Amino acid sequence: MEGHEDIEEVLSRLKAEDFKLTQQRRLIVQKLLSDEDNHPSAEEIYHMVRSEDPEVGLATVYRTLDLLQRLDIVHKVNFGDGKARYEMRGEQHQHHHLLCTECGLIHEVGEDLLGEVEEKLTARTGFRISDHDVKFYGLCPDCLCSEVQAEAQQ
């Protein structure tokens, strides 16, 4: 997604915070960056990393993800499937997600659709909003087409 940091920026931020630039951390960040459209879980990241470095443990992946989250490099998201998923944070507000309730497809909506709503809420309540998280649930075009075809056959 546009606006996300590249590997060198992430590693520079780690170094600036006095964290070691281990090969394992580098590999975890590379996998996150290469698979960010899929919002991988820690376990999925672990399996991707292990294919290149069998010495990496699941605990290392979790610790690295926790560190990246604390440094606001990674955002942990929950799509209601029982797994915490991760994505790289951009410089802008959190984007929105469309979630298919049939196949599990996750589609990102890159634009922030709630800027005006935030402004009104801030004016009305005095609350300073720093971010928001919106998920829309429904059927993706493929699943909708399959459902319509199934209904037509009945």
Describe this structure in words.
With 154 residues, the protein is of the alpha+beta class. It folds into two domains: 7-88, Arc Repressor Mutant, subunit A; 96-153, Ferric-uptake regulator, C-terminal dimerisarion domain (Dna Ligase, domain 1), CATH 3.30.1490.190. The chain has six helices and five strands; from the N terminus they run ααααββββαβα. The protein has helices at 7-16, 23-34, 42-50, 58-70, 115-125, 141-153, and strands at residues 74-78, 84-88, 96-100, 106-109, 135-138. Helix 2 (23-34) packs across helix 3 (42-50). It is flat and about 60 Å long. The mean pLDDT is 84.
Structural class: alpha+beta
CATH architecture label of the largest domain: Orthogonal Bundle
Q: Stretches where pLDDT falls below 50 for ≥5 residues?
A: none
CATH homologous superfamily descriptor of the largest domain: Winged helix-like DNA-binding domain superfamily/Winged helix DNA-binding domain
CATH class of the largest domain: Mainly Alpha
Q: What is the CA-based Rg, rounded?
A: 18 Å
Count of individual helical segments: 6
Portion of residues in helices? 40-55%
What is the CATH topology descriptor of the largest domain?
Arc Repressor Mutant, subunit A
Quickly count the domains: 2
Biggest sheet architecture: 3 strands, mixed
Give the strand line-up of the largest sheet: 4-3-5
- First-last Cα distance: 41 Å
Oligomeric form:
single chain
